[in-house]
Structures are given as C-alpha cells and as structure tokens.
What does this fold into?
Amino acid sequence: MLLAERQIIARIRKQVRPFGPIVAGIGDDTAILRFPSNDEILVTTDLCVEDVHFRRQWHPAHVVGHRCLARGISDIAAMGGTPIAAFLSLALPAKLPQKWLDGFFEGFLALAKQFRVTLAGGDIAESPSGVTADIVVLGTAPKGTAIRRSGARPGDFVYVTGQIGGAGGALKMLLFGGKKLKAKDYPRHFYPAPRVAVGQHLRAKKIASAMIDLSDGLSTDLAHICEESAVGAEVMASAIPRARIGPGGRLVDLETALNAGEDYELLFTAPPRRKVPKSIAGVAVTLIGKITRGRKMVLIEGSKRIPLKSAGWQHFQKSK
Ligand SMILES: [Mg+2]
It folds into this structure.
C-alpha cells in the first residue's frame, strides 16, 4: 500500500535539493527558476502509461523511473540544450506497493543527478487503474542556437550517434520471446542514455543543421526531419550502425534498426563542408546517408533503391 500523499511528497522532497537556476522547488505553489537573459527556455512533455510504455512484470520500478525521465532529457539533448529541471505528475493505483514507488524515484532521481536536473515540482493523484507518469523537462540553450528539425538542406549528410535497434530488439524479445530479460544484459532498452553532451557539442560547434532524437525509430524520426525541412533523404542500409544485444551480442536485424524506437540516440544532418568527428563525448558518430531535393526517403541496399517508409511507433495506428 502507498503512503498518504503528503508523506510521499515529504519523502521525495527530502531526496531533492534545488540548485542552479532553481530558486524554489518542491514546497510552494509554483517553482521559481531564474535564467540568464540570453538563454531560451526549452520545454518538453512526455506521458508514460502502464501497459503502453512499460509493463510492471517486465520493467523493474527503477527502470520505469529512469526511462520516464530519459525520454524528456533526450528531447532537450535533441535541441542541443542543457536540461535544468523536471516536473512530474503521477497517477497511482491505491494498492501500488510503496516499495515500487520508492524504486521508481530511485531510478528517476539517479538519472536526474547524473544530468544535474532538479525535480522541481509535480502532482500525485489516485488512479483507478495502472500507473501514469506525466513528465515535463525544462532546458536552456543560448538564444537562437537550439537545433531544429527544419534546418536540413539538400546535400547535407545524415549522421546517427551510437548504435541503433538495441532497445527495440529487446522489446521484441519481451513481446514475442515470452520470458523476462535481465536489465543488465539489455542496457539500451532498460537504461537508455540521453546524448546530452553530444547534442551540446553539435550546437556549440555549429555542426548540425537539423537534429532529432530517435524515440519513434529511424524511419519515422528521419521522416520528421524531412517533413519539417521540406527535403528527402537517402540512407545506406549497410552503413547503419546496428546494435548488438543480449549476453551473446547478437546483431539486431535491419528492420529493427530502421523501425524500432526508444534508442534515444541522436539523428542529425550537417552540411558537407562541416567536419564531423568520428566520436563525440565517447559516443560514435556514423554517416548513414544524405539529404536530397525530392521529398522522398530512399533506402539503398546494394544496387537496389527501395522506398523507405516510416514504419516506427505511432499511437492509434491500426496494427498491421
Ligand atoms: Mg524527441
């Protein structure tokens, strides 16, 4: 059973010390944040719904807390920003064990600490069924420098950080493999690492012309860049850095790397004259294609040119 609301909030408050731009955090009607006048504020919001984004029998509580915050921090990373504060609203079933909630905050606050993000407010309500976590993350970037989806131009090269398909490969095993997975064997699924330092570097060095984080899958997220920039793209299948997963280090298949989401790597474009490092902040950066004038996406596999359809995750999409 859960503690009463006020006891829960007191328990969380004890674990959080506001710092940086946070003048006041939990404990007043609103938080107070003070930013340098040259900064722009980045705001992102994400919903985590039980049995849609996570399952309690698959995902330990601290994993749910980690993943919930990671999604918001990753959106700030995708703008080249610095995450500052998080606001969390939770709907919780009354019969949820307090131990589960403690575990959730353990994962959430550990990631928050790693990225110097202050949990500065939120709300708790009783849910008739299932856990829902609604997170808002605030970040900053110097005025006019945040990297948008709309900046890709024909001739720009397309890059991706890290390896992709690892989170989706593990999800497929959970969905179709019928057994639980050990979190430590599938870190890309259970503990995704937002690429904040990489995003900041790409912004500070003015390398990227457009950027997005891979939350829905390469094919869908690239389509977002193409739509916002009014361009097309060609992707070389053989160049895609596919993740290895599990204790055996199995390489995920191309379909998973193209269409599975939740890797939270960065997908960005850069003009051909820009020098793009092979690795940034210890994360590999791989050239996978280029931006084209025609507003189509094409996958190049050997000598074949195949239309690349966005087939990543979409809520309310009829199952195929
Ligand atoms: Mg995003």
In short: Residues 61-77 form the longest helix (17 residues).
